[in-house]
Structures are given as C-alpha cells and as structure tokens.
Amino acid sequence: MSDEAIPPDAPASDRVRAAMAAVDRRDYLPWHQLRFAHADMPLRIGHGATCSQPSTVAAMLEELDPRPGDRALDVGSGSGWTTALLARLVSPAGSVVGVEIEPELVAMGRRHLLDAGVPGARIEQAEPGRLGRPAEAPFDRILVSAEARRLPQALVDQLADGGRVVVPVRGRLMVVDRHGDDVRARKVGWFSFVPLRGAD
Q1: Do the domain assignments include residue 3?
Q2: Which of 65, 72, 60, 129 is nearest to 96 (CA)?
Q3: Closest CA to 111 of 72, 84, 143, 144
Q4: What strands lie across the sheet with 139-144, from one edge to the other?
Q5: pLDDT, tens digit, for every residue of 33-87?
Q6: Distance between CA 186 and CA 174 in Å, rounded?
Q7: How many domains does one find in the chain?
Q8: Does the entry feature the keyword S-adenosyl-L-methionine, yes or no (predicted)?
Q9: Which of 68, 83, 172, 192 could form a disulfide with 98 if both were Cys (CB 3.0 to 4.6 A apart)?
Q10: What is the 3-state secondary structure (H, E, C) of the chain?
Q11: Cα(62)–Cα(102) distance, rounded to whole angstroms?
Q12: Residues 6+ away with beta carbon under 8 Å from 145
C-alpha cells in the first residue's frame, strides 16, 4: 500500500478513489486472474465466489463512507481486497474484521493481507448459521459483498449508534443507518452479486 495519507475531511469519492489507487487489486487475485486485475469486471476466485468489479466496490464504499477510526466489518471478505480497502479507509486508528464462510478463501484472504502488510485488519472464519461477528459488535460500518433475500436484521443489530451497513438485497443496494432505535434504509442502484449464505 502507498504511504500517501487520505485527508479525513475529503469527500467520500476522493477518499475511496485514493484508497483504490493505493490498494492494488492484483495483490488479491489468484494467478489465473492476474491479467484481468485492472479490468472493470467481476473475477472468479473459486468456491463460487468473485472479486467484485472495481466500479461496484467503489460505489459501495462511497455509500458506506468509512472514516478514520471506525470499526468495520467486511461480510464476505473473499480474496481480502475489500478488507484491505476498508483498512486503508479507517486507518490509522480504525480496525477491520473480515468474515468468510469458505475456509480456503479465509486462508487466501489472510495470506494476501499478510503479503501486502495490511495493518489493522484480519479475516476470520464465519460461524455456521450466524451472520457477521456479533461477539465483536458494535461496528461503525458494515460492508456486505453478497446478495441477501431481505435486509439481514442480524447485521443491523451489530451496528453501533450512528453506524451504517451497505448490503445488496434482491438486486438493489441498500444503505441502512442506525441512530439509537431509529433505523432508516434507502435503495441505490441495481447490482448483481453471489448469494449471501447464512442469511434468512
């Protein structure tokens, strides 16, 4: 990763653009996909998972608007690329935990984070039948890179006061904000993702 700091008061689009320039997608792909690393397309990484296309990831991160010092959760961390991007956006004082259901992808993501020297981030094996990381909640920001059939209440419950989750639901990207007991959701754009396993 580049050492160039992201101004914390910069617009989300600028901070996300800087993070994506600093965190090379090539470092988070299997060897057979390296030639497509900088193409704006989803890439298969095995086990029915993909590394989402950069424009989609950028749109999700802009809506999520992670800030320095945030505690972030990356659901469906896959190859570790989105986990590394989140780590860049919440640094230097923030932290990120990625969760992934496939053990082989957990190993892949961990190896990529280690090789790239990503601070403040780790990837854990998802617990069967349980979404997210409730034992470590609350989180300020939750990114979900798989499509749910309905808004996962389990993840909303893991949000801190003032927290936000971005999750694809039936083809629409949902942005959900929590302020105390008040939960508000809005839909933005149409996107295609692999199914979120473990959701109701």
Answers
A1: no
A2: 72
A3: 84
A4: 121-125, 95-100, 71-75, 139-144, 159-169, 172-179, 182-190
A5: 999 999 999 999 998 899 999 999 999 999 999 999 999 999 999 999 999 999 9
A6: 6
A7: 1
A8: yes
A9: 83
A10: CCCCCCCCCCCHHHHHHHHHHHCCHHHHCCHHHHHHCCCCCCEEEECCEEECCHHHHHHHHHHHCCCCCCEEEEECCCCCHHHHHHHHHHCCCCEEEEEECCHHHHHHHHHHHHHHCCCCEEEEECCCCCCCCHHHCCEEEEEECCEECCCCHHHHCCEEEEEEEEEEECCEEEEEEEECCEEEEEEEEECCCCECCCCC
A11: 27
A12: 52, 60, 74, 75, 76, 77, 78, 82, 193
Q: What is the pLDDT of residues 138-189, one digit of tens each?
A: 999 999 998 889 999 999 999 999 999 999 998 889 999 999 999 999 998 7
6 part of a folded domain: no
- Is position 23 within any domain? yes
**Which of 71, 177, 91 minimizes the C-alpha distance to 133?**
71
What is the domain range of residue 140? 12-190
Task: For residue 44, tell me if it sits in a domain.
Answer: yes
Catalytic residue ranges: 52
Contact 131/198 with Cβ under 8 angstroms? Answer: yes
